[in-house]
Amino acid sequence: MNKIKDMNPLKNEKILREEIYEKNKITKWIYNIIILLGGSGFLIVGISSYIKYNIVYFLNSDQIIFFPQGIIMCFYGICAIIISINQIKITLNKAGEGYNEFNKNLGLMQIYRKGTKGKNSDINIIYQLTDIEAIKIEIKNGYFNSKQNILVCLKEKNDIPILQLTNPLKINELEKKASEIASFLNVPLKGS
User: Fold this and answer.
1) 144: domain range?
2) Global pTM?
3) What beta strand segments (E) does the chain contain?
4) Are residues 145 and 88 in the same domain?
5) Which residues of 172-191 are buried (b: 16+ CB within 10 A; e: fewer)?
6) Are 33 and 78 part of one and the same domain?
7) Are residues 174 and 100 in the same domain?
8) pLDDT at residue 127 is higher than 80
């Protein structure tokens, strides 16, 4: 999902800022274009079966009867086109990208993530640094669903994830990143 831009974030003695960006944009573009083209093909074949004429010569619909196959192909085509356009819009808007900033000058922690275009879609979470109790590492290993998270533990509140990785790092790299944040904030590091 998201990945830290580099392992050397903007850091001085008073401010630690980590840029979060989407890692696999090229792969997403390829998948979205394939879904868009496939959905368009399904829709064209469905419409061709209704008018009994091949709109595109290499998409033969002579064997397709409009009811029920043509209707189903139109439905699948429309669904695929809507999904791919939505995913392309999300990729263009850079939804999910943002930054984590720990500012000792202001005494604030700010977590910002960009949303899709629309009213109030961005996520901007601000807490006092004094509310931070600890930094927590959470590792969930599964055959197909491995997750690694770094969370901020707040006093008397829920933990807030500041880094969620679906493509796991080595354990020592994850621990190094979490310990860097914990040492900057002078709070303990916890594991789960």
Assistant:
1) 2-23+95-191
2) 0.79
3) 2-4, 10-11, 15-22, 98-103, 108-113, 123-128, 132-140, 147-154, 160-165, 189-191
4) no
5) eebeebbebbbebbebebbe
6) yes
7) yes
8) yes
